[in-house]
Specification:
This is Small ribosomal subunit protein mS39. It is found in: Mitochondrion. Keywords: Mitochondrion, Repeat, Ribonucleoprotein, Ribosomal protein, RNA-binding, rRNA-binding, Transit peptide, Translation regulation. By secondary structure, the chain is mostly helical. It contains 31 helices and no strands.
Amino acid sequence: ALSSSLVSTRLQSSLAGNATATSSSTIQIPIYKERKPTDVLRALEGTIKRDPTAPHYKYIDDPYLIPVSQSTKRSYALAKEAGRKAAMWIRQELSYLFDHRVMDPVIESFLPKIEYTSKDQVSEEVLKKVIKDANPSDALTIYKLLEEQVSVETKSELFQLLCYYNNEEPLSEELMANKWFKNDSKTPSWKPCSETDKLFAFLKEQGGKIAADAYSAMICGNAKYMNAERAWQLSEEADRLNIPLTIEAYNYIISLATAITDNGSERKKIVLNTMKKIKELGLEPNIGTLNSALKVTSRMNRNNAEEFCRLLFGEFKSIGIEPSLASYYYALKTFYRKDSPACSLLREIMNKIKNKAFVAQSKADTLFFPFAMDVAANIIIDPELGDQIHKLLLTGDNYNFIGNNFGENIYYRHYFMLQAQNCPIDAFMNNYYDVIVPNIYVPEPMVMNAILSTLEFSDPDISREYLARIWSHMVQFEHLERKNLVSKALNLMRVHCKPDKNSPFNAIFADAAWTVWKYVLLQQERRIQTLNWEGRILGDMAILCLRADEVDNSATIVTYLLEKQSSTIGVPDFEQLDILLDGFIMKCFAPPTMDLVAYCAENDFPEVPGMVEKIESNLSLTEWQHNRLRSFVDANEGSKKKPRI
């Protein structure tokens, strides 16, 4: 009781002291920090260690359902997206079934899209909302239903929307796989639209800011969608009428220099004159201004371009504009050309921006990482520099700047070629290949060829195990139709990575050879053959089967070699044929030895008599077999004077 009373007394005195301290101090409310809806999820994600071997979340994490080739990755992702499209179509076509609104607040993305068919459904407020939601087709429909009776400001907003999207519906944000696999190689083109032209004709007559915004939007739209002549004409018209444009319009005017003239001096003059105009109007240049100027600079001749590039970086730094990834990309394009001398610019850039998380400033930001890795791999040839670039890519959200599937493949192609050609094979496989393949990147044939070359120049005992793994991946990645890869891999199995007699690798390599055999025969049955047999490939396959004691399979290949000479390109080396002959003799299997001698006789190999002598000395033959061998020797003697093709 005494102890509990003492504790109570101490607690009361402590609380009293705290109350006094609190009452005497001022309560400071912390500054409000705005957080995004996903910040908590990101914080939770940061507590989980990433598994580099895990598939992308868009694929089902099941060993039988994880795609391992580039084609299946694309097919699986787009198939899932096709299901999403089908659901969206059903929701729209049967919209009356989805009219329940149980959520509060209402999530409009879950609701069917409203179809505007009558004037009673629309108003200027509805039009403004649709414009804000960036829906050009619906906005144009509502505008027509309103019989164009809307305010000038709303017309201006609609016009800007139509110019920005080129009168096309933008790809839904929900269809991420379509964007990822979309081929951007097609050059966009400006699509004429009567409504756009009518709006522009009306707005430019309004004068003041409305006219300036109309000219700016029209110039930006035409320049963005490669209608350079019209954009340049409008810029000259605006200049003649003293219409002040927006900074975005002037940025596009700068970028037009490459389309207007091929002369480097003229391009530079356009850039400088436009910047002078920006200064006279009191506009503030932005990162878009710098990138537009650098884009033009990267397409000027090297001597003028390098000096002008340095000048631009210095001038914009003096006014507090930090370069973006696109800025560095254009700088690299300027300094690293086929005729350029050695340059340390990429190293300087990497030292400046290492560990930096970038924010998207331009679509061209996505071009930096693939091109930087290209420079590191093919010009500088520095594996450590390649690792620095990759570390920067994995910093923060920088991986978003890899662009799309095409850009990612280019990036990893250069990265793998760089490391495969300059690293020991065990370091390459452990630090790069096993971490990235196949869930992030599937090596293309040229990369696989580089890896096989590295195996060829590595220790056979180390290469042997890795070759078996690489081969299994070649099968998975659908590389069996690549004759150069198949030939190189089989030859490595036979020569450089030759296993000991009792090694389990003999069976593995024989299985590889027979896999190729079955694959080609299946193609022939389907009449879609893409891999034509070569004599050397068949020779390697037969030897690999024979080493694993698969004599029947080896004999089948030899028989095919004899009977299908017209469909086989070239002949095996005599070394291969001699190895096969010795192997069949050791197995006391006479029939394929007959086929080998017959094949050599038909192809005028001078070693036929020696082969016959070896067979007769080591095998028990029938009289018919002896006579057949003698006929081959006689035929060979008769053709000695003929040149062998």
